[in-house]
Amino acid sequence: MRVDAQSTGAGAVFPGCGSWATRVHSSYLRFPADVPSAGRRVVLQLRVRRFRCRNTKCPRRTFVEQIPGLTRRYGQRTERLHSALAAVGLALAGRASAPLAALLCVSVSRSTILRLVDALPEPEVPAPRVVGVDEYATRKGRHYGTVLVDVETRRPIDLLPDREASSLAAWLAKRPSIEVICRDRAPFFAEGASSGAPQAVQVADRWHLWHNLSGAAERSVAQHRRCLHALTPAAPQPEHEAAPAADPSASPWATRTPVRRPDEGPARRRPCPVEGRTQPTLGPATARNDLAHRQAARRRSDAGETVHRAAAEPALGPRVRLQTDLAQSRNDASVTTAS
How many CA atoms lie within 13 A of 173 on its CB side? Predict the structure, then answer.
């Protein structure tokens, strides 16, 4: 959106000598950018006049009129757009302000926003009464400076390039209205505060106060740990219940569930005399084979033969062990019949 504008004033004040000039030398067009309207960019097509000065002693012969509140010398933006971009730069800095300005239909780079912020005049800071002194690092472990903060308004006042006592003393000497200095326990800050503002009261800041208090309390507790143990009453020991007497007939080995074949039904359980446990009941086929094997061994023992048992047998599966027991029972039965 382009807006044509022109000044209708009869003359202008010459900035060099302050005289009123009405004689027009020439005119030309300026195109300052203005704040956007309805989401569209706005450009002013402004015709300005160049006046001639009648004062013969003035070093400048001509000058260009400036519209108060609208333009400035060599300015490419109007005053209200300039103020809006500077406010955005103060709030978000350069890197974040440029994308926001693009959303507001203002084409500007982050470097331009930083230059606008840097060109702003320094605000007038009232004389502080309570000053906080601390250090900051421009390169951690190598280079440090001093930051001075107004404790009452919680805003920084000044930055010193180093943390020497002489620099702090010179800064405090120029401000005799300081009454309280809040600092840490650094010796150079204490020396600078004493020499630069002898009338001020020096206090420790809250963080260092709590830090020193917690450290002193921890060291005191560590030194008197035995005293704390002596003052603590002994807790009553719980009475140990007598362990139940072991049953001599009980087996020292833990019982486990036997492995059943897939074709066998669910194992039936019967009461076990050992500690009220239950043990599984063998199937009909396994029980008959086991009975035949025990009967054969008893007949051999009654006949005076020695029954030998293997000291250790290899671990066999249920099916292989059953087949082996059946074969052994048949051999024992045939031996008994022959005898």
Answer: 10
